Amino acid sequence: MATKRVPPTPISADATIADMIETLDKPVEYVRRVLEKLERCKRAHGDAQVRVGVRGRAEAPNYLIEYVREDAKTRERTTDQDAAYSGSTHRELAPHHIKAAANWSPEEMNITAVSALIGRLRNPRAPSSQANNED
User: Fold this and answer.
1) Whether the predicted model's global pTM rises above the 0.70 cut
2) Hey, is 74 helix, strand or coil?
3) How far apart are CA 9 and CA 95, in angstroms?
4) Which of 56, 100, 109, 113 has its CA 20 to 30 A from that of 27?
5) Facing residues of 53 across strands?
6) Phi and psi at residue 40, in whole multiples of 5°?
7) Distances from the Cα of 66 to the Cαs of 85, 107, 127, in angstroms?
8) How far apart are CA 98 and CA 85, in angstroms?
9) Residues 48 and 111: beta-carbon distance below 8 Å
10) At a CB cut-off of 8 Å and minimum separation 6, what does 23 contact?
11) Rounded to whole angstroms, how far apart are CA atoms 135 and 133?
12) Averaged over 37-50, what is the pLDDT?
């Protein structure tokens, strides 16, 4: 008996993890593992942010961890790549994956935003940080 192949879910070119929550196989586990990598980067470099891969599977997209540095004299900010990871295994990918800019969304999420996202996933009934307008 032949099985039907399900076409892959397309990933928006400017997606973030928050945009993809509905398509992730295991959203809490995925975001938790990304957050671990972000925390490691922050300990090493003082900053951390993540971009998702836009060419892979929306159910477990690869991701790129970066950090921003600011030159003390010129105040010029530069973004440096830390490492890229497989979305399904969370293992580090080969360095050539990082260099292909077309692989990555131009939109990033910082470590604070990812921490807030996992909090909402783990406790969806908690009041949001935005004030409710009640009459």
Assistant:
1) yes
2) coil
3) 26
4) 100
5) 104
6) -60, -45
7) 12, 12, 30
8) 9
9) yes
10) 9, 58, 59
11) 7
12) 97
Give me Rg for the CA atoms of the chain.
17
Which alpha helices (H) appear in 46-126, and where do they start and end? 96-99, 111-122
Closest to 105 in 3D by CA, of 17, 9, 25: 17
pLDDT confidence band for 8 (50 / 70 / 90): low
Tell me: pLDDT of 114 over 80: yes
Taking residues 2-23, report their average pLDDT: 81
Sheet containing 63-70, strands listed edge to edge, beginning at the edge strand earlier in sequence: 77-85, 63-70, 49-52, 109-110
| Confidence category of residue 18, pLDDT binned at 50, 70, 90 | very high
Tokens of 26: 């295991």
Euclidean distance between the first and the last CA atom of the chain, given in angstroms as a whole number: 59
pLDDT tens digits, 46-90: 999 999 999 888 999 999 999 999 888 999 999 999 999 999 999
Sign of dihedral through CA atoms 129, 20, 105, 49? positive
Confidence tier at 133 by pLDDT (50, 70, 90): very low
* Phi and psi torsions of 88, nearest 5°: -90, -35
